[in-house]
UniProtKB/TrEMBL annotation:
<dbReference type="Pfam" id="PF05899">
    <property type="entry name" value="Cupin_3"/>
</dbReference>
<dbReference type="InterPro" id="IPR008579">
    <property type="entry name" value="UGlyAH_Cupin_dom"/>
</dbReference>
<dbReference type="InterPro" id="IPR050204">
    <property type="entry name" value="AraC_XylS_family_regulators"/>
</dbReference>
<keyword id="KW-0804">Transcription</keyword>
<dbReference type="InterPro" id="IPR009057">
    <property type="entry name" value="Homeodomain-like_sf"/>
</dbReference>
<dbReference type="InterPro" id="IPR018062">
    <property type="entry name" value="HTH_AraC-typ_CS"/>
</dbReference>
<feature type="domain" description="HTH araC/xylS-type">
    <location>
        <begin position="187"/>
        <end position="286"/>
    </location>
</feature>
<dbReference type="Pfam" id="PF12833">
    <property type="entry name" value="HTH_18"/>
</dbReference>
<dbReference type="InterPro" id="IPR014710">
    <property type="entry name" value="RmlC-like_jellyroll"/>
</dbReference>
<dbReference type="InterPro" id="IPR018060">
    <property type="entry name" value="HTH_AraC"/>
</dbReference>
<dbReference type="GO" id="GO:0003700">
    <property type="term" value="F:DNA-binding transcription factor activity"/>
</dbReference>
<keyword id="KW-0805">Transcription regulation</keyword>
<dbReference type="InterPro" id="IPR020449">
    <property type="entry name" value="Tscrpt_reg_AraC-type_HTH"/>
</dbReference>
<dbReference type="InterPro" id="IPR011051">
    <property type="entry name" value="RmlC_Cupin_sf"/>
</dbReference>
<dbReference type="GO" id="GO:0043565">
    <property type="term" value="F:sequence-specific DNA binding"/>
</dbReference>
<keyword id="KW-0238">DNA-binding</keyword>
<protein>
    <submittedName>
        <fullName>AraC family transcriptional regulator</fullName>
    </submittedName>
</protein>
């Protein structure tokens, strides 16, 4: 991936590698009003309808007043809302399949009323759908059952809102990550890794043999395009599968561990904690 302020176009087929998903949208009083430390795995944007909030993240403090918006990167933040605060908030995923975030942010970004004209109107159809069909889903919207028409409706409205945010971020010259596939073998390697079963061990040497290359060459080609190695990418795919199973199924932890290729639950728990900072049971309980 490459960082750029002047964003080049991508081939149509490569945009499918951007995982841009609506997680939740909400209007009302802040659900987490005042806490010294709040962790979020996703991007969050708030429009302050009333009151004000002081945010601290990435070593920077931002004061947001009514009419303004703020974009928060994934991670830990502190917030102090006024008692009369009301917000319009949207949580969303925007990552490439190699786990690189679309927006390269470390601190909150404030947007004025003039910069966000039309954002609220674009979010109203999403709010209406969620209030009618999924009022209690919160951050489990991804695992709510819905028909194709409703999915397309929600995602279509979200994509239109994201396009507005994209345009404003680009106008400001903020940093993005975009794929740079100068070597066509990078996509072939990625497709081969995608096809490998997640319950079987990943062998870089075997992958290299399939292409008649050395392990070092495969790593170099893949890393230059995606800023990660094939092994790291495989592990992220396996972690995503495990997280989904923990959050959306009633399977026991040991069953999930076995399905991900671990012979012992203790080995799985150690791997999961190294990846996420919490045990599988803690992750399931917290989310």
């Amino acid at each position: 991936m490459s960082q750029s302020k002047s964003l080049p176009p991508l081939p149509f087929r490569e945009w499918k590698f951007l995982d841009a998903q609506l997680i939740w949208v909400y209007e009302g009083v802040p659900q987490v009003a005042n806490q010294r430390s709040v962790s979020n795995r996703y991007f969050t944007a708030w429009g302050l309808l009333q009151g004000e909030v002081v945010l601290a993240a990435g070593g920077e403090e931002v004061r947001i007043s009514a009419g303004d918006w703020v974009l928060l990167p994934p991670g830990t933040s502190e917030r102090q809302f006024s008692e009369d605060a009301r917000i319009l908030s949207i949580h969303f995923e925007a990552r490439w399949i190699t786990d690189q975030a679309l927006f390269e942010l470390r601190v909150p970004i404030r947007f004025s009323r003039s910069e966000t004209r039309g954002w609220r109107e674009l979010m109203q159809p999403m709010l209406a759908t969620i209030r009618k069909h999924h009022p209690h889903a919160y951050n489990r919207l991804q695992w709510e059952e819905m028909d194709f028409e409703r999915y397309v409706d929600l995602q279509g409205n979200f994509q239109r809102w994201l396009a507005r945010l994209w345009g404003e971020m680009q106008r400001r010259g903020e940093l993005f990550f975009l794929p740079q596939n100068d070597d066509p073998r990078s996509m072939e390697i990625k497709m081969r890794v995608d096809a490998k079963p997640l319950h079987l061990p990943f062998r870089l040497e075997n992958l290299a043999e399939e292409f008649g290359l050395s392990a070092a060459q495969v790593n170099r080609i893949f890393f230059s395009a995606f800023r990660t190695t094939p092994k790291q990418y495989f592990e992220r795919r396996r972690l995503a599968q495990v997280k989904g199973a923990l959050l959306s199924s009633s399977q026991q932890v040991k069953e999930i561990a076995f399905g991900a290729g671990f012979r012992h639950q203790s080995e799985f728990s150690s791997w999961f904690k190294k990846q996420t900072g919490s045990s599988p049971s803690e992750f399931r309980k917290r989310n």
